[in-house]
Specification:
Elements: H1 6-12, E1 19-23, H2 27-37, E2 43-47, H3 50-59, E3 64-68, H4 76-85, E4 94-98, H5 104-113, E5 117-120, H6 125-172, H7 175-180, E6 186-192, E7 198-200, H8 202-208, H9 219-225, H10 228-244, E8 248-255, E9 261-272, E10 278-287, H11 289-360, H12 366-393, E11 401-403, H13 405-420, E12 424-429, E13 437-439, H14 441-457, E14 463-470, E15 486-493, H15 500-505, H16 523-533, E16 537-542, E17 548-555, H17 561-565, E18 584-588, H18 592-604, E19 608-612, H19 615-623, E20 630-634, H20 642-652, E21 658-662, E22 678-680, H21 685-717
Parallel strand pairs: 1-2, 1-3, 3-4, 4-5, 12-14, 18-19, 18-20, 20-21, 21-22
Antiparallel strand pairs: 6-7, 6-10, 8-9, 9-10, 11-13, 14-15, 15-17, 16-17
Helix pairs in contact: 6-11, 11-12, 11-18, 12-16, 13-14, 14-16, 19-20
């Protein structure tokens, strides 16, 4: 729509559409507002200055004005002031589009100028459409109410004029007969103030809903038909009219013999004798029930609209709160993952050094042995803590596999019984033929054990711990759980339970109800992280005095139980490894302590170690002709990551075995390499030895295969006579 002919476009447009005036000196913003509000199907008029806006307002019936704050000549505040000073536009809604630097004083100035709302920049399309739609609906409702009020005022004025004309004629002749001629929903009546007798016409009987042949309009009979809440007001109006000689007007409800309630307006005047004594009270009654029903309908619609706006506002506030909570947890998760990564490096140094120290101090003093074992146990506990941190951050290295829940839980029974103690009864309700699930077995065992310990702490006086594994069935599933087939593992206790506030915070990291030193607050967070990272979810049900139920939903494995029984034995059950050999290992790690500790373990295994602190130095060593059998590289390094180094090595040295050492699963899913040897930090010396032997064996196997293939090719190319 062009600015030059905006008013003409509105006149030619659909008259049922409301007109929205868009005022902004920037054409691009006007086009943006037009695109956003075009979905509403209303008439949009654009003005690039305050002067154009005022010209449009004088020619067009505008329902809503959207004003930019900063404009040349006249800014938004000055334009709003001018618009409000015009009597025609005192009720026209004005919405300011404000920049982010707007101050609170500017907001107050805008509201004083007549603004009804602010829309911040950058504009959120859904928010702008919702605000405009609400004000347009209010505009239509107001216009409808004004139309109805105008009609009502016209009818009342018309009826009043008729009544005044009839009253004048009644003073000159027979008043009651003239009023009886009034048709429709009006009835005439007369009350003798001296005797109290009533005289009604047919319309009056019809309005009151009584039969003229059976009903005698006495004072008591008429008062019984008036609603009890309105009777005193009607009687007071009649008494004041009779005492003052002036006319009266009263609105009240009638209750018919069948219980029907009708709204009426009664107006009348007093007839005086020559001495000024009131003789008669004569008037008419108008049935306004239909108007009242219409007003009530419009009011209900207005209330529904206000409730809808409030509901949408609450939904938006809830959505913003949920978004803030998700961002907060994600930030904490990133921080936790980074701390755990650095802590894993420290544990790598500590565990490696302690392990080498234990080997070199044999035999030793029992006290020294005990101190050394305590140190190693402390390091192991630190390792478990980092696993919980990484599980919460959803960054631990998971090794998903098909798990038989009955076998896994059955194998943990003795461990669970020791963990919960003799005062708590353990019940296992797990069907033997339960479908397999896809998860990390070690992490799942740790999660079940953590939940069992939590249940034990919630039952200090003893109780029952029930562990159930079933298909979800009628159980409520977490809202975030994607569609699919799952198995539900439920750990239920008869402990003290949690109140609503504690239940809401139970998944927060580091939140615990245990005393100081008795809990890290990561147990439930770790379980939740494991379930989410495995493609499942978690529910927590609890109430004070009613115990707690924790439900872990894990996806079913693609492999069936029948297929799993036909699998070949695991490679973990293979025979003893061949005697260790000495290799030249290129060790790449930017952390000096980790690199030094790993080199010491390698040298203790009899290997020759070449240490470098970056991927670039590793490539330089190989280019110099250094003989390398195996490369061990950290992943998180500045400049070139371990994965980037591995790809460079595979390109230039395809036969070179590479082992990637990592503190957590920091490799994106689209960067993972199938079959890439991994060492999860912190690792022990035996894991390091196994990884090197496996990598070297794979290299020799590949080389032997290439030689055999070459010999076969040569034999196939020899003459048949040879």
């Amino acid at each position: 729509m062009n600015r030059g002919n905006g008013a003409e476009s509105v006149i030619r447009g659909n008259p049922e559409k409301a007109t929205v005036l868009l005022v902004d000196d920037q054409p691009g913003k006007l086009l943006t507002y037009e695109a956003i509000l075009g979905e509403l199907g209303e008439n949009l008029v654009k003005a690039s200055s305050a002067r154009e806006a005022l010209a449009v307002l004088l020619k067009t019936d505008v329902a809503l004005v959207l004003i930019d704050v900063c404009m040349p000549e006249l800014d938004g505040f000055e334009l709003a002031t001018i618009i409000r000073e015009h009597p025609r536009f005192r009720k026209t809604p004005l919405i300011f589009v404000s920049a982010v630097q707007i101050t609170e004083l500017d907001r107050l100035r805008g509201y004083e100028a007549g603004a009804v709302d602010y829309v911040p920049v950058p504009v959120v399309p859904e928010l702008l459409r919702a605000k405009v739609k609400v004000f347009l609906e209010l505009h239509r409702t107001s216009m409808e109410l004004e139309r109805l009020n105008a009609e009502l005022e016209e009818r009342v004025a018309k009826r009043t004029a008729e009544l005044e004309s009839v009253a004048t004629r009644l003073l000159e002749s027979e008043q009651r007969r003239s009023l009886a001629l009034v048709a429709g929903r009006m009835g005439s009546w007369e009350r003798n103030l001296l005797t109290g007798e009533y005289s009604w016409d047919e319309g009056q009987y019809r309005i009151y809903g009584v039969d003229p042949a059976k009903f005698l309009p006495t004072v008591d009979a008429v008062q019984q038909l008036i609603h009890a809440d309105d009777l005193d007001r009607v009687l007071k109006a009649e008494e004041q009219a009779a005492g003052s000689g002036r006319s009266f007007y009263s609105e009240f409800r009638l209750v018919g013999p069948d219980g029907t309630i009708r709204w009426c307006i009664a107006g009348g005047a007093v007839t005086l004798d020559s001495s000024g004594t009131p003789l008669r009270l004569t008037g008419v009654t108008h049935d306004i029930t239909d108007r009242k029903v219409l007003e009530e309908t419009l009011q209900n619609q207005k209330d529904e609209l206000e409730q809808l706006v409030e509901a949408r506002t609450r939904e938006r506030e809830v959505a913003l709160a949920q978004l803030f909570e998700a961002q907060k947890l994600d930030t904490i998760g990133q921080l936790t993952g980074g701390v755990a990564h650095d802590f894993n490096n420290l544990l790598m140094v500590i565990l490696g050094s302690l392990e080498l120290l234990r080997k070199r101090l044999t035999p030793m003093d029992p006290r020294v042995q005990r101190l050394l074992e305590n140190a190693m146990q402390g390091a192991d506990r630190g390792t478990a803590l980092t696993q919980r941190l990484l599980a919460f951050a959803r960054r631990q290295e998971l090794r998903p596999q098909s798990i038989d829940i009955p076998t896994l839980i059955g194998g943990m029974r003795e461990l669970l019984e020791r963990a919960i103690g003799p005062g708590i009864q353990l019940n296992l309700n797990i069907p033997v033929q339960l479908d397999l699930v896809q998860a990390d077995a070690n992490q799942l065992e740790l999660a079940v054990l953590n939940l069992a310990v939590n249940s034990r702490d919630a039952m200090p006086l003893g109780g029952t711990l029930t562990l159930t594994a079933v298909e979800p069935g009628g159980r409520p599933v977490p809202p975030s759980l994607p569609p699919g087939e799952y198995v539900c593992i439920e750990i239920a206790d008869t402990g003290m339970g949690m109140d609503e506030e504690t239940l809401q915070r139970s998944r927060e990291p580091f939140f615990t109800t245990k005393g100081p030193g008795k809990g890290t607050g990561l147990g439930l967070s770790m379980v939740h992280g494991l379930a989410a990272q495995s493609g499942g979810g978690m529910n927590i049900l609890s109430c004070v005095g009613g115990g707690t139920q924790v439900q872990i939903f894990l996806p079913k494995a693609l492999q069936s139980r029948e297929d799993s029984t036909q699998d070949s034995p695991s490679t973990d059950e293979a025979g003893p490894a061949s005697p260790p050999q000495s290799y030249c290992v290129l060790l790449v790690d930017d952390d000096l302590l980790v690199r030094t500790g790993t080199a010491a373990m390698l040298e203790d295994l009899g290997h020759v170690v070449v240490e470098v602190d970056s991927g670039a130095q590793a490539l330089a060593q190989l280019k110099q002709g250094t003989r390398i059998d195996v490369v061990i590289t950290d992943h998180a390094m500045p400049g070139m990551t371990g994965l980037a180094l591995m790809r460079a090595l595979k390109s230039s040295y395809p036969e070179m075995p590479v082992i990637l050492a990592s503190g957590f699963a920091e490799i994106a899913d689209d960067e993972r390499v199938v079959g890439l040897p991994r060492l999860t930090k912190p690792f022990r010396q035996h894991a390091l030895a196994t990884a090197i032997s496996a990598a070297a064996a794979a290299r020799h196997s590949t080389a032997a295969g290439e030689i055999a293939s070459s010999i076969n090719d040569r034999l196939s190319n020899m003459p048949k006579s040879v």
